[in-house]
Design brief:
151 residues; alpha+beta; 4 helices; globular
Amino acid sequence: MNQTPERQSATGLEFLRNAMAAGGLGKGIGQTLGLSIDAVDDGQVTLSGAPGLEHANPMGAVHGGYLATLLDGAMALAVQTQLDIGTRYATTDLNITYVKGVAPGQAVVRCVGAVLHLGRTMALAEAKVVDDAGKLYAHATATFAIADLHP
C-alpha cells in the first residue's frame, strides 16, 4: 500500500477519527459483518453491530465468531489509536468469556475496547460486548505483538 509522506506521519488516532468521519474503514471484515465505528478516543474504540440471521449458528443464536470478531476488532483498533500509521501489530492471544447468548435481530450490540498496557513490543487490551441497556454478553482480553521498527 503506497502512502504519502503526510499519511505516514499520521497517528492511528487521527487515522481512525478520519475513518469514522468518512463512514468507516471501507471494505473488510467489519463491512462483511455490518460493524460500525461509534467512538474513537486515545486508547479506546467503540464498535457496534446488529447481528441478524446470517450471523446465526445452527442453534439459532448469534455465532460466537461474530462476537469474537467484534471484541478483537475493538481491542485492535484501540491499540492502533496509540501507534503511528505503518506500525505493524497482530493479535497473539485472544481470551473470551461468553456470558449470555445474543439472538439474531434482538438488538444492537456495542463493544468498547480499551488499551490496558502499551509497551515497545506488546500491548494488552480488554473489551466488553453490551446492549443498549448495559447487559453484558461477552468479555475479552487480548495480547498484541507490536513490530519494533525503530531498533
